[in-house]
Structure formats: C-alpha cells, structure tokens
Design brief:
This protein has 21 helices and no strands.
C-alpha cells in the first residue's frame, strides 16, 4: 500500500519532500530509511550503555550524588541548547551532514569518557553532547525522503529502534562493565560510533539537503529566537507544540524520579529495575513496530492526537491509584502507547505544518522538549515526591491531560500542510 501511495502521490507531496521521485526511486528511498533506522538503533544502544555505567564511573572517581546531579543537569542543558542548533544545521547543510556530525560527536564523547580518570575530565566529556542528536538526525532523513502521507508511519517505527536501544544498551553495558571493567563500554561506544559515522558517510545520499539556497542565505544564523518565533506562527504549530510539551511533562517528572521511586516506593533492587527497563523496551518495540504505524494509516492525525491525550489522562488516574510494581507493569502498556503516539503524531504534524526547508529546525525544537524536562524536572519532581508522594504525579498527569483533551475537542486547530518552502 505504501508503495502505491508513493507512486501515486501528488506533485505537492513530492515537492514537500526533501527528495522527489525523480531524485530517488522507491527502492532507494526504502534503503535510506532502513539505514536511518540502523544508525538510530546503534546510536541509542551506545547512549543507554553509557547511561547505565555513568553512576558507577562517577562513583569510582569520587563524585557524590550532588555532583552527579550537576553532571546530569549539564548534559541536559547541552542537549536542550543543541537541539535547535542541530536542527538549523540540518536545514542549512543537509540531513546527511547533520547525521555525520551527530555520530562524530558521539565518537568524541566516548573518547573523552574513556580518558576520564578524574572528575574535571568527566565533566568535560559532556561537551560533545551538544551535537549528539541521532534520533532528530534520523527523523530529518526520513522526513526528507517520505511523502507527507507516509511520514507518520515511517517516523513511528523509529520507536522500535528506541526499544532495541534500551534493551541492548542496558544489557551489553551492564555485562561489559561487570566482567571487563567500567571503561570497556566506552571503548565499545567509541568504535561503534566511528562505525556509525562511516555508515552515514557511505549509505546516506548527499542529495538529502535543503532545496532552497535562497532560504539558506536569508536565514543563516544557527541559533535565532526570531526564527523559532517565525516557525511558531505557522497555522496550528503553537497549539500542537503546547500539547506536545504539557501532555508528557508530568510523566516526564515521574520518569526522572523513577530510580528513587523504584527503590523507596516499589522496593526494587538494581537487577529488578533493569528487568523493568527491559520490559519497557519490549513494550516500546511492540507499540511502535506494530501499533502506531497501523493506526496512523487508518485514522486522522488529529484523532490520534486526541486519543493519546485521553489515554495519558487515564494513565494518570491509574498512577494515582497504584500501590505495587505489578500495578505499574499494567499501567506501563497504555503509558508507552500514549507516549509513543504523542511523540510520533506531533512530530509528523509539526514537520508538515512548516516549509520543507524548516523541518530540521522544527525537529530540533521538538527534540528539546525532553532535555528541558530533564533540566527542570529534578527540582520539581523532587518537591512533588517529597511533599505529596508518588500519587501526586498521577493526579497532575490526570488534570493536565483532561484539560488538554477538552481543549482539543472544543478548538479547531488550523492545520495546513505546507507544499513548498
């Protein structure tokens, strides 16, 4: 069906793509998308490898919990600032160049980690994180080579890569650090990121680039508040972006505090927490690989956006009432569905609502939502957990998403699909 849609897509849809049918054949486009999936899966695997070993590496260097919090905050701020800059870079120099930059930054990141024999070097190793945006880079490639009607399904399958990254990265990182030493995963990450860079150089075509040199010279700054405001003025963009930010914010606070909640509230050991993360990874793979794409091909994006917000509200009620880890395992299924659907649909809507020459910047803005939550989340989440307990996250989730659901039902968000830049 997707092949027939691609062959019969309108000229307007082809113009909105970074590469038209005349530039890339259907088989070649599918190959490029598969390569983007591979790069994203490897990138996430290496990222989760280092996330698992970071507490142990920091502890071995004498960094206390407060210092480790500062380390995580610095990485979140760098990702927050770098998301939009990376997106603008992709618009000006092409998705291929942006993906190569991300993979090369990952190599430099792991190189510095492997040399981190003291605390200052460990903090220095966070700096390349400003350009480490493998998922937005892959999203930009996919956005360029798909027609608007194909985009939601293709972007949705990236979540499958996320599940692979969680499971593989957590397991491999734990095994390597336990059996061979805490620095061994950094060596694997360094070699793997170099291989990822080579894959991007060889297999991502150079035609993945902006189509308008005029736009490139007119808006040449990599970071501009004026440019962000310009994108937000397109019909429906501000409304959908607000829903994207606030719908997932309460659950984002919960996930930031999850390591503490899993120990204090659920009474889990480290190994059991790892199993729970793997369970999340499997759910992510199933939902993104089998559910999101099928629903995106059958229902309108606005319908799915309303559905994801409504399910988020139901999840909030479940979280407010949960008492055991088994309750949480039941809630996890609709939680992963709502999270995956919200991310995929909003990214698809927002990239279609702006000119094709601005899709990278829009993806960069979308990618900054999670780093923003990681930056402000520890303080807000800590206060909520200490003062009101775990149920407060659920009640906040319920109230915010019920309000958003009513807003989406009553308001008619003007969504206009841009056909040109």
């Amino acid at each position: 069906v997707s092949t027939m849609n691609a062959k019969t897509s309108s000229a307007g849809e082809e113009e909105a793509s970074g590469m038209s049918n005349e530039t890339l054949g259907e088989a070649k486009r599918r190959q490029v998308i598969r390569v983007a999936y591979v790069i994203a899966a490897l990138d996430l695997t290496f990222l989760f490898m280092q996330m698992g070993l970071m507490p142990y590496l920091a502890k071995s260097l004498g960094l206390d919990s407060v210092g480790f919090g500062y380390l995580q905050t610095i990485f979140g701020v760098l990702q927050l600032v770098g998301g939009y800059i990376f997106g603008r870079f992709a618009d000006q120099f092409g998705a291929r160049a942006a993906l190569i930059l991300s993979c090369a930054s990952g190599s430099f990141f792991f190189l510095l980690m492997s040399l981190s024999t003291n605390i200052p070097l460990l903090f220095l190793s966070r700096l390349p994180g400003v350009f480490m945006h493998g998922i937005p880079g892959a999203q930009k490639v996919i956005t360029d080579v798909t027609t608007p009607s194909q985009r939601a399904g293709a972007l949705g399958k990236l979540g499958f890569c996320f599940g692979v990254g969680i499971i593989t990265g957590s397991v491999v990182g734990g095994v390597l650090s336990t059996k061979f030493g805490v620095y061994v995963p950094t060596y694997v990450g360094l070699v793997g990121s170099l291989i990822n860079t080579l894959i991007a150089v060889v297999w991502i075509p150079s035609q993945t680039k902006p189509k308008s040199d005029h736009h490139r010279t007119e808006h040449s700054d990599l970071f501009s508040i004026r440019e962000i405001l310009r994108l937000m003025k397109f019909p429906g963009v501000m409304e959908v972006f607000i829903v994207k930010v606030f719908a997932g914010f309460p659950i984002g606070l919960f996930m930031i505090m999850f390591s503490i909640i899993s120990m204090d509230f659920f009474g889990l050991e480290a190994v059991e927490s790892g199993y729970l993360m793997s369970y999340f990874g499997v759910l992510q793979m199933v939902v993104q690989g089998l559910v999101v794409g099928n629903l995106a091909s059958r229902f309108s994006e606005m319908t799915l956006l309303r559905l994801s917000v409504f399910v988020f509200a139901c999840v909030g009620l479940g979280m407010a009432l949960m008492r055991t880890v088994w309750h949480y395992c039941i809630i996890a299924a609709p939680l992963v569905f709502a999270f995956s659907m919200l991310a995929t649909i909003t990214d698809s809507i927002l990239t279609k609502a702006v000119p094709s020459s601005d899709t990278g910047a829009m993806l960069g803005i979308c990618a900054s939502v999670q780093p923003l939550t990681r930056t402000v989340g520890p303080t807000i989440g800590g206060v909520l957990y200490k003062q009101f307990g775990v149920s407060s996250f659920g009640y906040l989730q319920l109230m915010v998403n019920l309000g958003l659901f009513v807003y989406l039902l009553k308001s008619k968000i003007p969504l206009e699909e841009m056909k040109s830049q």
